[in-house]
Predict the structure of DNA helicase.
Amino acid sequence: MEQVSRILAGHQRNRTVFVDEAQDCHRFEKDILLSLYGANNLVVANGGKDQLVRHTELCNWEVSQNKKIAFKKYYTRNRSFRIKKTVADFCNFVAAQFNIDFHLEPMDAPDDGELLIDFRQQNPDTAVKEVFNHLALKGAVNGCTRYESLLVLLESNSQRATDQGELQERPAVMVSEHGNIRETLHRRKGGWKYMPGLETYKDRFWDGTIDDKSQQAVPGPHESRIIYYESCRGLESWSVACFALDKFFNQKLEEPDAALFLAEDLFLATDVEKRRQMFAATWVLMALTRVIDTLYIQLNDRESVFGKVVAAYLALDPAHVRELGPHLVKQ
């Protein structure tokens, strides 16, 4: 580290390093940055436990290597410069159900946006196409390209053309951010089950869920993006379509890291199930907050943990929120 510091000594001078999502850094990452650049040259945007995704405990930027750091702290409100009121209200409701201190304030806008809820499990291609047309049109009338108009988020273990994927012979080892090691088989998944039908309408999609992206070009302005939930952090779109969101919640609920989430919190240490649900809800909130105007959510089970939360919100009859039936009526 000392040798690296000497090499970077000239590079560091008069430079300021900005660290976004600093609450989610590992303590070693924090120590390296502080050793290389010094506390005087670092500006960190530090969120709360509701924004933990990579790790299960908050990174403390006030201490490094058992020493206190000189710093200045500036407090800001949890103000969004992207999300409109309808979706912000829904996010706050979801966070409250899982005891997450969110309190998101929406952006100032002439309208409040829209939330569409869909509990239908087996939507035909035509129904999905109708939803996409609705979302794409909303972006187009506001001057957005197709790339800017629609982002599609998928749960990685469902909504596929082959439910279980095709297992190859080659064994693989998965290592999580927290050092958990698990032996598995390399799984090659089928494509999204709606893709062939949508392509017959000559819609253009950039598929970020394929196994081999080495030959894939960057998405163009006329392509809507399709990616996994885990890859959506930092992205945004005028409209976002979330498929099998309750399955994604359940997937995160069962991950080994869910039991480690905020395990050092004195008030939560003994309530493992509560911490698991908070972990899953944190991931869901990351997906929900990718949207600017209109959010479409498809769920498979009204009686699932997350399905019940959404159903309870619908029962409040909030403005600009609709549950979809056989047809998407009003445009």
Observations:
- Residues 281 and 312 are 16 Å apart (CA to CA).
- The first helix runs from residue 2 to 7.
